[in-house]
């Protein structure tokens, strides 16, 4: 399974975000140790992709109230073997929001760089054992306003004013996404 594009993204991420260089190295070690890291069947975890989605004016962020986890989170999910994880993030954004058009924001002279990396535990549920999601997160902007659609994976999907995010979530990794978007001048 090709992991070359993912490895290149992780190297660029470490260069652009030095505060996450050690985490990027952990990702690289995980990806190197697990040729099947892009598949759900990979244990003890697998690569996922998500998107921090801003409204066209940058004043709101699109969050989903995740059905299984019961929390407000960014949109995203399994890459299901897609070696270009940014494509998986776009696919998940479309599936979970009902929106069709997004701009994948490229803001570095190095090319596409993930906005953030995060490793988080997923609790055991039914026949699925505890595992980790190795999440590669991208910055997207919706191209236009359109009605939202709530997918089967969510209780709700909502545009939230960025200054009110802390009222909806205390998740440090979610709030960090907004902080990074602000630091880059997109929000």
Helical amount among residues, as a percent range?
25-40%
Structural class: alpha+beta
Q: Please tell me what the overall shape is.
A: globular
The major sheet is characterized as: 8 strands, mixed
Q: How confident overall, as mean pLDDT?
A: 94
Order of helices and strands: HHEEEEHEEEEHH
List the uncertain runs: none
Radius of gyration: 16 Å
Tell me, what is the CATH class? Alpha Beta
Description of the molecule:
This protein has 5 helices and 8 strands, in the order ααββββαββββαα. It is of the alpha+beta class and 187 residues long. It has a single domain, classed as Nucleoside Triphosphate Pyrophosphohydrolase. Strands 1, 2, 3, 4, 5, 6, 7 and 8 form an 8-stranded mixed β-sheet that branches. Helix 1 (4-16) runs antiparallel to helix 2 (21-33). It is globular, with a radius of gyration of 16 Å. The termini are far apart. The mean pLDDT is 94.
Main attributes of the structure:
single chain, 187 residues, alpha+beta, Nucleoside Triphosphate Pyrophosphohydrolase, 8-stranded mixed β-sheet, 8 strands, globular
Describe the secondary-structure layout.
Layout: H1 4-16, H2 21-33, E1 45-54, E2 60-66, E3 72-73, E4 75-78, H3 85-97, E5 102-104, E6 116-122, E7 131-142, E8 154-161, H4 165-168, H5 172-183
Helix pairs in contact: 1-2
Summarize the structure.
It contains five helices and eight strands; from the N terminus they run ααββββαββββαα.
